[in-house]
Design goal:
Helices cover about 45% and strands about 25% of the residues. The chain has 21 helices and 22 strands. An 8-stranded mixed beta barrel has the order 13-14-16-17-18-19-20-21, surrounded by 4 helices. α5 crosses α6.
Length: about 600
Amino acid sequence: MAGKRQIQREGAEQSMRTPDGEMHGALTMLERSANAGLWMYEVASDVLHWSDGVFAIFGDSRGSYTPTLSRLIENCAPLSRQVMIRAGLKALKRGSPFALNLEIVQANGRRRRVRVIGEPKQAEGKVYRIVGCALDVQSSVDTEEHNRLLEEQLRYYRDYDSLTDLPNRKRLENELTECLVAARRRGAGGWLLYLDLDRFKLINEACGPAGGDRLIRETATLLRENIESADFLARLGSDQFAIIIAEVEPAAAMRKATALVDLIDQYRFHGGANAFHVSVSIGAAPIDVSVRHSGELFRRAEASCHVAKQQGGSRVVVFRHADTELANSETDLSWGEEILLGLDKGRFVLYAQRLVDIAGGSAPSYEVLLRLHTSDGSMALPGRFLPAARRYGLMNAIDRHVVQLLLRYLADSNDLQANWGHVSVNLSGASLCDDSFIGFLLPALTRSGIEPNKICFEITESEALHDIASAQEMVARLHASGYRVFLDDFGNGFTSFHYLKNLQVVGLKLDNSYIRHLDREPFNQAVVSSVSRICGHLGLELVAEGVENVSELDVLKRFGVHRAQGFLFHRPEPLANAILSDYPSEPAG
């Protein structure tokens, strides 16, 4: 292999010496420069070639090693290394030429200042080769000036998006902070527009990542060419952009935003033989004294954009404090941030509520519940944060986190497992539909060493019916591994009985809406009685949730319901406390 690479390198160097070779342009630069060397990088084979001159610049002799990208990067001083990596990525992704002032470290430890020039070669829109030269400029640039150029290059890569050359989110946040300061002085400071392309995912999947990148670049060019010089355009990431517009008067600002919607609506993206219609949703938020910081302004504009998408896209929605829909959207954004912090900083806490055997005699079991310590020090119930988790696609991450926390606790309390029946944990619809989730779950269960009969899973009826095929597959694989599954919140769907026979569940948990006022609601009694008889015929266990008084319990006993849970028996508490506590199986009094 080493011999083959040597032949490749020598062949490439021979091409460099041929006027008709790919390096002809670089040779012209070499003729005008002293202390220079040539290099060439083949993208497909990941092979780097460089001439004797480059070896000399690095203080090495020809053939002393095979050039590689990692060796090139290692030869750069730390600050120059960052600049080199960012420029290289930009060249590969965008085909952008570069001219960098770098500091390299020679084999003897001495440092030298080098100018590296590179020019990507493309075919069919893809970079297949980068050619260039390296110039030793030690004697022509003083140290202070060289360091200034390095810092300037690095500052550019830190503040600008490499795909579009637009300012990035970090730069935008700095700009917004200045706008907020100005707004406090003048009372108003313009508007923030949050732009999100409506059909990006479709085009990205149809045309591939390269097509998606081209769409982003073309959109950036369209926006750049159609805003005022006083406006500030940035790319936030993926298919989102932001614009700070200087207009203070709302009507003028909205005319600008609406014009941008019309502009993108008329644009067609050409991918292969197809022409794709592209549209954009825009959320607009005023930069005024009511905004405390740039993060709050982002949330307002993003929430407005989300409402625009919900209303069909290709429109502008303006943030208004009194708008309930926007307020809910902004609240969800705040909870989304809390959830991410909770996952990152370990703020989720497992609680549990006891399930009792109504007839008595069996060991207690527990349903695992979730709580979240928030940034303000309060403890949030699931009803507050789960809507945001569903909206922002965080349910799968929460499920994985809960499983890991639970298995860790159960493994640490292995000696207590004989004292209780099982613990039951909920799985979301997002996990049911994620093929990779079962690939995470089963190995994690196996590694824990916990007996399968000690863990049950609950899937809600509505989410199981939403994707019955995925639910069937998930339940079947858990069943085959010895784990039991219950169908939770049973009774919310109208097709429950039709699909029940197709799911390998071991039991049902009645929705608590049928348990509330069970002692005096004939309709609820009829439902519970019917479900109990069906469970008896199918050999399924029936659990009642939300039992709050003895009268409800008496009706459940009469109908033959097996287990119950609710405030009558046990109020949720931290999992460790619940399992260690000695609660009676029957309610007192």
